[in-house]
Amino acid sequence: QEKRIEGNSRVISSTHAMILSFFSTLYLIDIIDYEYWITFLPICSSFGLFDLTLVTIHYSKFKKNYVPVFIHHSLLIFGPLLVTHSNSYVMAQSFLFENTVPILDFIWYLYNTNHNESLLFKMNAVVGLISFFLFRIVNNFYLLTRSVQFNSLFQLATVSFMGLNIYWFYSLTKLFLRSIL
Predict the structure, then answer these.
(1) DSSP three-state, residue 158
(2) pLDDT given for residue 77 in this prediction
(3) Burial profile 153-175: b = 16 or more Cβ within 10 angstroms, e = fewer
(4) What is the pTM of this model?
């Protein structure tokens, strides 16, 4: 039952991530305009609220990582309220973090279906770790440098994401080394 709940959450998580990263990429390369792009931002808040509710209802299963998940989902829920036309490209670039989610969710699926010894798992683990580093760590450092031109609430959100991303990258690296080696 618990794995089923988490699995369903991961399907929704990956769907949310693909939609937001896709339309943010289109916005960043000027295929869609600001007005069209912001119509997709409620998806971010809706997913954050959905998943935070799910994690809270099943607190006993998620209590180990509840605080980082709570912070992350609170940023997802309220982050779109920080979007202005002047900071929209930086915000769109932050949604590129989401490119890592489907990969990580697939790794979770492989692991939980006992395929963690397979070549497919190991290859995806390498791709997942590299993509996490590029999209979440390197990209977030760049966003930190850009955030200084915006208000302190925006800067706090960027710093919070950086802390979460470093924490999760450390955790992923430990898991990666334990499962690959």
Answers:
(1) helix
(2) 96
(3) ebeebbebbbebbeebbeebeee
(4) 0.92
